[in-house]
TrEMBL record:
The lineage of its organism: Bacteria, Bacillati, Bacillota, Bacilli, Bacillales. This is Carbohydrate ABC transporter membrane protein 2 (CUT1 family). CDD domains: TM_PBP2. Its main location: membrane. It holds the Pfam family BPD_transp_1. It is found in: Cell membrane. One of its GO terms (biological process) is transmembrane transport.
Length: 279
């Protein structure tokens, strides 16, 4: 092997790889321990030393979950809410980001700053007025009422505005206008292909945030048939005698769709980079 082909190992690189390996271990270990607990009886939760090897009760514990809650119905409800909220957020955020990045109109900066300021307001402060508005619209205990709160995403508007302003050349838009393209056709034919990598990033953020949401869904959903997976799993701990193996099994299986969605969006992100943006 030539000297060019050999990579010199330095103390700095050993430290960096060691630190990254340690960080990866601490990030992955909670998920591994959750899997171990999902295969163990409830008593193993408080065992000393803690159990680190998976057992053989994964199917039995999951069967207990399905006996206690409508697991697959809750997963379907959650999937519907997450997909609808993600698609709406991507559409609204990309349109708003396009407007803030490429158009000039009175009060543009004021509106943009006002949208960003909503990010610093704790969501708990708006819980009561939002509940009253949803109740007035007769959307309590419905999937529409559970998802409507997530349709406007200030972070998504900010990300799209920054991405479009940096990635879409003004000359490309001017050329499209000379060809007779309307603003919406420019958005559909030019903006959308370019922002696909940003769509992948924002889609992961929104999907996982909505999937993990509990407070709002617990507030507006009361019928077990309309429960999301987070609300349904919370009912497993509503008794004094908690079966931790059952709870961990439900939590473990509820994270599987998140992993699948991440892998799908990750592939979209990579393919969007390699295929090129401007078409």
């Amino acid at each position: 092997m030539s000297a060019v082909g050999r990579k010199k190992i330095t103390g700095g690189s050993v430290f960096v790889y060691g630190f990254l390996s340690l960080a990866a271990f601490f990030a992955i270990f909670p998920f591994y321990w959750m899997l171990v607990m999902a295969t163990k009886p409830s008593a193993a939760y408080n065992s000393i030393p803690p159990a680190l090897v998976p057992g053989g009760l994964l199917v039995e514990n999951f069967q207990k979950v399905m006996d206690k809650i409508p697991f697959f119905q809750a997963m379907l409800n959650t999937l519907i809410i997450c997909l609808a909220a993600t698609l709406v957020v991507l559409f609204i955020s990309s349109l708003a980001g396009y407007a803030f990045a490429k158009f000039s109109f009175p009060g543009k900066n004021v509106f943009f700053v006002a949208i960003l300021l909503t990010m610093v307001i704790p969501p708990q402060l708006g819980l009561i007025p939002q509940y009253l508005l949803v109740a007035k619209a007769d959307l309590l205990d419905t999937l529409s009422g559970a998802m409507i709160l997530f349709f406007l995403n200030p972070l998504g508007i900010f990300l799209m505005r920054q991405y479009i302003s940096q990635s879409v050349p003004d000359e490309l838009m001017e050329a499209a206008k000379l060809d007779g393209c309307s603003n919406f056709k420019i958005y559909r034919s030019i903006i959308l292909p370019i922002v696909l990598p940003a769509f992948a990033t924002l889609g992961i953020i929104v999907f996982t945030a909505v999937w993990g949401e509990f407070l709002w869904q617990f507030t507006v959903l009361r019928n077990p048939d309309s429960y999301t997976i987070q609300v349904a799993l919370a009912t497993l701990t509503a008794t004094s005698n908690i079966d931790f193996g059952m709870v961990m099994s439900g939590v473990f299986w509820s994270t599987v769709p998140l992993i699948i969605v991440f892998l799908l969006f990750n592939r979209l992100f990579i393919s969007s980079i390699t295929e090129g943006s401007v078409k």
